[in-house]
Amino acid sequence: MSRRQYGFLVGFLIAWLLWAASLWVTLGAILLGLLGYAIARVIEGDLDLSGLGDLADRIGNTRRKP
């Protein structure tokens, strides 16, 4: 299957879940799916988390201090 076909299948399943369940159940399923995807990418070594510390420092330094 191509990426377009997977994308269509995922979109179709999300629409079905919205119809069959509630909005919160659908959002929870999407969130858990994205979390599982991210964990799989980290385990396979495709996702580098070493830059997250730098990002947190940048975000922390941009806040205004009273």
Quick overview of this protein structure:
By secondary structure, this protein is mainly alpha-helical. 76% of the residues lie in helices and 0% in strands.
CA-based gyration radius = 18 Å
Question: Based on helices, strands and strand pairing, what is the structural class?
Answer: mainly alpha
- Helix and strand pattern: HHH
Largest pleated sheet: none
* Count of helical stretches: 3
Counting structural domains, the number is 1
| Helix percentage | over 70%
Strand count? 0
| Uncertain segments | none
Mean pLDDT: 77
Distance between the termini: 55 Å
Global shape: extended
How much β-strand is present in the residues? under 5%
What does this structure look like?
By secondary structure, the protein is mainly alpha-helical. It has one domain. Helix content is 76%, strand content 0%. It contains 3 helices and no strands. It has helices at 3-20, 23-44, 52-61. The longest helix has 22 residues, at 23-44. The mean pLDDT is 77.
